[in-house]
Amino acid sequence: MNEKTKLPKSLDEIYKSINSYGYYQLFFLITIQWSSITAAGNMAAGFFSLGGLIPTYICSDEDYEFELDAKQIRNDSSAACLMIRNCSNLTTKNAWYSMYEEFGWVCESDLLRTTIATLMPFVSFLSLSVSGHLTDYFGRKWLMVFGFTVDLLCDFGKAFTPNFEVYIILNVIGALAGTVHVGATFSLTVESVHSKYRLIQGFGFQFSLGFMLAGLSCYLTGNWRTHLLVMNFLSIPVLLMMLKLEESPRFLIQQKKYDQAAAAINRIARFNRRSHIQYTPDDLREIQLAAPGKKQESTKKYTFIDLFSNWRLTSYAISQIVTGFTMNVVNGVMFFNIQDLAGNPFLNIALMGALRLWTPFAGVALENGAKNFGRKKLLVISQGIVAFCFIAMFSIALADLSDSLRIFGTAAALIGYALETGLVWIVYKLYTTELFPTVIRTIALNTFSSTSLFGSMLSPQLVYLKTYWSPAPFSGAAISSGLSVLLAALLLPETQFVALPDTIAEATKREELPIEDDDKESQDNIKPLYAKDVEQNESLLVD
């Protein structure tokens, strides 16, 4: 007698049959985490962060001696420039050989670099405005590979740049490619795993290990060029690993490329040691036609306007825009202000990573062990703590307390940063992928990444304003994080253990999309037509 079987009703059931979290998903996680490690190393050495560290200038002329540290130079850069130019026997004492020292920025206006840092997000904005549409039209995998390759070549080029002008050109090209890579990668990540494991896969984008390695590399190499070479040599294997990944089956099904979708799923099955399970294009065609709205929506071309097609989606978008803005403000305030924090800048960079190490484990534990602690509570509570931390740092800066007390403010800011970039970031990204359907998922990711760039544009100006009002950077972080908490609490629904919507019709009826999970049935009991035919033929042969 044949074992009772049934056809899959959704991609989650398909993933369950070929192993909800198998070798393929683990390989995917390692690939993304490896790419994030090297990305963090490049980010840490940027011209407006560690690359811009100001050395201490020491003049040892016979009748003209002085020692100017970073704080004195920032307070009166014009006078510092004049003193340095009039010194014949000048030496420096530095944490490492930075771009600031090599390119002689002590005699250039800080406003110039602040303006460049503010304008750079416009480059990413231009890329994001089209890359989300390209990814939802043409696919995730090859845009991911293309973006990563171009970004890697640009980062290598920066290590050999002859001047700052060429460095900025490479930065612009890398920013254009990098935004394409990140948007495509995140969509591919969450669409290539069972819905119950989206949070685990999302944590592959953590920069914790990357910042720890970056702090160590900066200390050991002692030179910004050498550091970039080391970090980007580590990236080369990632490109080869990306080529092994499959295109998103969800995307292929939405594009009616059933043959390619079936082939991708069957290769994932073989990777997961379930080669006896094979799906056909007919299986996947039935899945697409089963849900309401799929027939009508499968051929439509979408734009960012569809993110606001009804009030429910609009309310989600408003909250996500503010949270994304907040994340970039917090990130910019910390990185662009790194030399003003108490303690060693390399140690602080490493701590930015180390303090985030626990966040993936906490997120996964909450995901699997606390049924009443879903996405919404995780976002509201973690963002609330971030707001409290930056209010504390703002208060200390406002009171202009002593350096010994500023250590407590620095600790609060580091904790706030760790939560913002660890827990808030992942739940924000997951919320976007879970609230918005497959047909506009990457458009949503890239649209909100675009609007979050306004935070990147604002943060350099907040850092520049500290010359006139020292608490300025931390005031921006405190206000925006508080607003993010309020909007999330009022507007966002819970999406934990809710199946990914594929169409706008499904996205507006979230409560009707529970994940299929009948624990009484084994994974092998959910089988495609091909597997049923094989079993029936084998049964006939035995008889």
From TrEMBL:
Pfam families: Sugar_tr (PF00083). One of its GO terms (cellular component) is membrane. GO terms for molecular function: transmembrane transporter activity. InterPro entries: MFS_sugar_transport-like, MFS_trans_sf. Keywords: Membrane, Transmembrane, Transmembrane helix. It comes from the Eukaryota. It is found in: Membrane. The chain crosses the membrane at residues 21-45, 111-130, 166-190, 202-222, 228-245, 313-334, 378-399, 405-428, 435-454, 474-492. It is a multi-pass membrane protein. This is Major facilitator superfamily (MFS) profile domain-containing protein. It comes from Acrobeloides nanus.
